[in-house]
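Example 3.
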Amino acid sequence: MRKKIRNIIQFLIGFIGLLLLWQASIHVFDVPFYILPTPYEILIALIDGFYQNDFLLHAWVTLSEALSGFVLGSICGIIIGALVSQFRILQKTLLPYIVAFQVLPKVALAPLLVIWFGFGMQTRVLMVMMLTLFPVLVNSLVGFSSVPHQQIELMYSLTASRWQIFRKLKIPSALPLIFSGLHIAIIQSVLAAVVAEFIAAERGLGVMNLKLVFDFDIPGSFATLVVLATMATLLYVLVAWIKNRTIFWLNRDEFNPV
Amino acid sequence: MGDVLIEVKRLSKTYQTQKKEQLLAIKEVTFKIYPGEFVSVVGPSGCGKSTLLKIIGGLLPKTSGDIFLENQPVEGPRKDIGIVFQEPVLLPWRTVLENTILPIEIQRLDVKAYESVAIKLLEMVGLEGFENKYPFELSGGMQQRNAITRALIHDPKILLMDEPFGALDAMTREQMNIELLKIWRKSQKTIFFITHSIPEAIFLSDRVIVFSQRPGTIAQIIETKLPRPRTLEMMNTEAFGKLSKKIREHFPFKSETAL
């Protein structure tokens, strides 16, 4: 506990120092605000943003797109990963497409999605789904397929059925890797939501950011970035929190970035 | 002796290697195990003794020969066999009690009803008070005791043990041997035990099956005839030494290379 408090204090000192350095170097080198605003200008723009530009509403829109896409994409990823890992016929038929689709820069599909699904929320959620599906799918696939041989043999010796082996052994065994996938996916979800908003949206932090840049409100644009970064961090921490509670048997004295 | 519990008749096992060569692991092995007996197989590593256990446990197919458990052929995993592996193989997300009860869940029996059985077993192996701990909170010896309770919970006719104490240090191992004999006496199970340790085999067993180098064949079956209950002091007796020498003679390689 004491160590935790010390860590937080150390972080805060470093963070404030960095901001001061930033603020000072902009004054010293006389950088114009439209290239790089000072932290103070960004802070003012942030407060303005919440009062005048409805940041909260836009943040809510982006968050709901990211989260619903993340949840749907992850569920699909886990299910497909589980199915492909368990049935050889699916491995043979589907795996090449999964690999091909994985290397495809899916962001490039965004304009097509607009043509297919219009300008509504469904297009943006789909975009998020596409970017979250694959990291979760690939990690689940590996997780479900790499159960220690001895544990399988044990279940087999106990006359376990295939379904029992899957439910009682493979699902818990796959959880650590599924969570690695979810960690990647949650970050991708915010990215995907913003990209989708760049292309087709009326509201959201991506829209706001674009609008503020066009208005030459660079501090305002930075302020949206601050909100986005905060949102992504909180989502990441949420996933890490759930992970630590779910796979309690692994987080003893391991390196934990959160 | 009374009825035969396990009968192994002219059992052979051939593996196919990566290069498609036929590798004979076990050759024409024949022996019987009687109810309540403690029988060990001792032999150098790679002599096919673990393969033998896995075939008896229904985990590996045999190439030829027969295995009968109470006159029924063994053709796959069975509910009336308990196996303890080299590693404890506990599921890390399950508590000690939940690990013990796993076979009951798999066999779709009444888990609640077996909880008291599990608690008694855990008490018998000295794990009382650890029911709700997780495997990572236990020492290696305790984990293996947990594995033994899991192998006993469904009251199998025979307990197959595949070098269960091989991963433990020498002191813990001796202690586990004594514990195992206590468990054997209290549970009145038949135990088939694989080891590469000659003293361990003699100390535990009624009969020791000596396996030769690959292909695994039975070199000799020795009745230990040592009194029970066994004590560690017996390991220093003349009778023990004679048995040890008799078994070791089947592995001349070791004495030739010794300095």
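The beta strands of chain B are 6-16, 22-33, 38-42, 64-69, 72-73, 81-84, 158-162, 190-195, 207-211, 218-223. The longest strand of chain B covers residues 22-33.
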